[in-house]
Specification:
mainly beta
């Protein structure tokens, strides 16, 4: 099923759903923290 993620500013991202296929609303959370240590060359 093709779905849309619509942000508060009107930005729309389209994609394919998997799992629960009914309309829902919620909160999108992301984390930009680094995990581990960078490898120096």
């Amino acid at each position: 099923m093709t779905v849309s993620l619509i942000l508060a500013d009107g930005t729309c991202f389209k994609g394919e759903s998997f799992g629960y296929e009914h309309p829902v609303s919620g909160e999108l959370v992301f984390n930009t923290a680094m995990a581990g240590y960078p490898i120096a060359d």
